[in-house]
Design a protein that fits this description.
Order of helices and strands: EHEEHEHEEEHEHEHEHEHHEHEE
Structural class: alpha/beta
CATH topology of the largest domain: Rossmann fold
Number of domains: 2
Radius of gyration: 19 Å
Largest sheet: 7 strands, mixed
CATH superfamily of the largest domain: Vaccinia Virus protein VP39
Number of strands: 14
């Protein structure tokens, strides 16, 4: 028997909750997400009953509550159901659908067929169970739409904090010559590699390594990219920003997301002090995106 947790998941909390569950070693989870209602998601989590008595489940919820505080939110109510022995790895798949993004892109769970109404879209096959960052979060969608608006035709692209690899795959599908990716999470490196294989790209087109700026530099081997993708939380972007110049051509650009709109002014000041100019901005709800170039 299993306990199944159902909890409303505001977009602001999606990445934090998924990261926390993975950090706790709880990988039997999914986000129920309907493309027609992108702001209404439900977090689903399956736990074996013998290992999770009521006291342990209460402590789990208590450990999640602080994740809502930075956003001025309260963790939504948790609902527990007792379910019969079920293959959770199949059960969570029922909660994923083909997800159109922008005008051209379609994020497609690997086990589904392309819906007829989306036959003309660029398909990005994903295994949503492998890591966070499958495209539903507003910051990821902002990056995908920005890539679509200015396709990286013939570009060498770097993806810093690649997560599931969805941005790297979109860049390749939109014309990039190659993508060099890195993430400090070994699960993300594995997810990007798996999703690369799902989409039929070679390691020459999409290389991925464990690490940060230095890992990208090592893979670039003296080259510099035309475009940097960085969908990470604002404080991390700020910490990594001094390394951006070494990754990009003098006329290169970067798309930075993962930041809250009210974090943008400070980040723009930091980037300005490092010689970067903000050339475009975007937002979805409370989340923002900055495009930067060298002055």
């Amino acid at each position: 028997m299993w306990w199944r947790l159902s909890m409303a998941c505001p977009p602001e909390l999606e990445e934090s909750l998924v990261w926390k569950l993975n950090d706790l070693g709880l990988h039997r989870h999914a986000l129920q997400h309907a493309p027609e209602a992108p702001d209404h998601r439900t977090l689903m989590l399956w736990l074996p009953q013998p290992e999770w008595p009521e006291s342990e489940r209460q402590q789990l919820i208590i450990s999640l509550e602080p994740l809502a505080e930075p956003f001025g939110l309260t963790l939504p109510d948790a609902h527990w159901d007792s379910v019969a022995d079920e293959d959770w790895s199949l059960s969570w798949k029922q909660h994923w659908q083909a997800d159109p993004v922008g005008q051209q892109l379609l994020i497609l769970p690997a086990w589904l067929e392309v819906p007829e109404e989306h036959r003309d879209r660029l398909v990005l096959k994903m295994d949503p169970g492998s890591a966070f960052g499958t495209g539903s979060h507003p910051t990821t969608r902002l990056c995908l739409e920005a890539l679509e608006a200015t396709p990286p035709n013939g570009n060498l692209v770097t993806d810093l904090g690649c997560g599931s690899g969805v941005l790297a795959l979109a860049a390749l599908g939109l014309g990039a010559e190659a993508v060099v990716a890195a993430d400090t999470d070994s699960l993300a490196v594995r997810a990007t590699t798996d999703n690369r294989d799902l989409n039929g790209y070679s390691s020459e087109r999409l290389s991925v390594a464990l690490g940060s700026v230095e890992a990208l530099q090592e893979q670039l081997a003296g080259r510099r990219a035309d475009l940097l993708l960085c969908n990470i939380l604002a404080p991390v972007i700020e910490a990594l920003a001094p390394g951006f110049e070494a990754l990009l051509q003098p006329k290169g650009r970067a798309l930075l997301s993962g930041l809250l709109v009210d974090q943008a002014p400070r980040l723009k000041d930091v980037l300005g002090s490092l010689g970067w100019t903000v050339t475009d901005e975007g937002s979805q709800g409370r989340w923002g995106l900055l495009e930067i170039r060298r002055e």
